[in-house]
TrEMBL record:
This is F-box domain-containing protein. Residues 1-17 have a biased composition (Basic residues). Residues 1-116 are annotated as: Disordered. Residues 64-75 have a biased composition (Low complexity). Residues 25-41, 50-63, 99-112 have a biased composition (Polar residues). It comes from the Eukaryota.
Amino acid sequence: MGKRKARSQKKSASSKKVKLEENEVSTSLETSQQQDTQGSSIAPAILAETPTSGQSGTEEATVQTEQAQGAGIAEATEEGEGVTVPTAAGELATKDTEATPSAGTETTSIEQQADEESINQISTTAEKAMLEPNILMHIFYEIIVQVPFLIPGGFNIPLPFMGYWRPIIDCAARANLQSVCKQWAHLIANNARFWRDIHIDGNRIPSPPKSWRKGLGSDPENYVEPPHDGEVELPTVSDEMSRAVLSVERSQDSLINLVLVDPTYDPSPGLMQLGRPFLPRPGMLELIHTAMDKPMIGSLSIITKDVHFVKDLLDPGVYLDERYISDQEMILTDIEKVSLACDGKEADHFDVSTLPLIGSFNGIRTRRQREIEAADDIKHEKLRTKYKVWPKLHTLRICTRGKGWMSDRVRCALPAMRAPALRHLELNLYYGGNRIWLWTFPYAQLTHLTLATEERSSILLGIIGRCASLENLTITLRRNPDQAEFAHASKHVVLALLKDLSIQIDVGHAHDHDSKVGRRFLDYITTPRLQSLRFITRIVGRAYPIIYLLKRSHCQLRELYLDFYSSDLYPNPEKEDLDPFSEEFDLHELLYFVAPTVETLAIQSGVMDISFLRTLSAPHLQKIAILCFGRIRAPFIGQLVEIDGHAYDVALSFLRWAEKWMKGATVEEKSKRRIQFVAGPASDGLCGGTDAFYGRSKCEKCIRIPAPTDVREMVSTIRAMGGKVNVWWTALKQLKSRD
């Protein structure tokens, strides 16, 4: 049989070309080596007609997908394809530098592209070619499943879980495909891969207002229905919940990956009263309990202002008096707080299996015996509810944002006996009042841990020190160190199994120039098996302790990512523009130390001096990426703002080095080497920089423009030598009201 091709001209998911053969389907998208970021179980490239269910397969798929944020550089093909970036950066064309559209040309956003034309053409092609079901499933996967974003150099909007804002499943595309014919509807409906990733946005669920009876405590039951004079009642079940319920039913009893965005709401937003709780969205708890009872939830991700909803879900009873921590109990030492977070209290470890089954005795009872048994049944049922077991939960993410009216002084315990499969834990407690030691988790069994809190380093070190099985650690340090913290000597922590470490230092503007932030944490850990290190900060001087961490650990580092946002990077400390508040950071020394073993090197910064390339001798280096956010020459409102000559000089120097690097390589070495350069939008302190490039800016966006002629010529020369090189040239454009 000859080749059969089915192409979609406008594809809402990722604008990819799919080549179909009888036994093979390939795509032009090359994925990078993976790191724990995107947390839904995206299927591999080849799909079975009917996937198998079970924990082991689901966990493997989840681990493969969750690591997509970028432990490696996105590999671009010779045609310049294979790179996709989020939001504003996603609008940059992924074509080759030589075929880049003009500066005024903008790529239509993914969300605005329609599926109808793509579906119609695929339908016509399918009828003519009579595609086999397996081939159709490959096409459906390309359209329905939205693959993770790949960022040049493996960088991303620093370390978030993108699944909160970008669902894995394109529900509109799935519905459109199902409407084509009965065969397509049957194939999609019976494939669990298209249903087990469930994303629920509570803001799209109609939630009725209620009145609060003041002075009656913090129980949610104290809300009452307000009088409705002629008002139309809100629907009890929204389209959002109906779609989620259908997804649970069609997941075929396989583990589901559930993402909840704002699952509760404030029923009386105009009332300012501390201690007043939020209420669950209509139908939310019923869906969760249905999925729990099978059990089906393998991955649970929640972002909310209402931290008590999460605590009551994982550990029912947070509103009871015994869970409340008084002012006197809040005064604990750091050692006591670590013990509370890792060990909890004796009552947290109750064995539910020891409880007798309700109604198991069928003999004749006296009246007194019936009363005693009835009381015991009530007590046992409360205990079963209180100590809810999550036997299949392997991934848990909790992200709090803002502050609700309920103060956070209650404990939540999820020990190992109630979450035996938990291996991945992410805690993003952005509000300082959300104390990490009020959560008890089985840290000893975790392999992947993400922490972003405002706790002091001594508490964080104590918790991480209890993670005996930890292989991947992502930590965000936000607290400015005080004298008491440095005066108290912490116990040195050896992370014997740790392979991947990501450290982000993110503090308020008041401490932007304090180079000591994060120093205590870095000075008290040792990582003898570390292979990948990612360091993110706006102050270059904060990278000073990295070299001592690596020397102390005697590790063989293979991947190094340095992300300094748009901050200037001068490897030579004699430069006059060096930050006077930062200690000396010698990039030459760091690269010299890691050169014998490093395979991947990526650097993102503002104005940079790349003289370190002249002396770089890394025999195993395979992938290198430079993202340079240069200076703005002269901004014009409403016009394109081009990058100045600095990025141009850096690009030429980098490409000249790359040319020499490829000349001395063998054919096998050339096939493994990847080269990337991004001339990012410059920053003047108010606009541009990484905020525009990654879509975080509200006043401008980043678009792709043609690179200078001599840059394109050098790219062609390197490609003629067999080198795989990709160059992006970008500029800023002011956002208009319609944007």
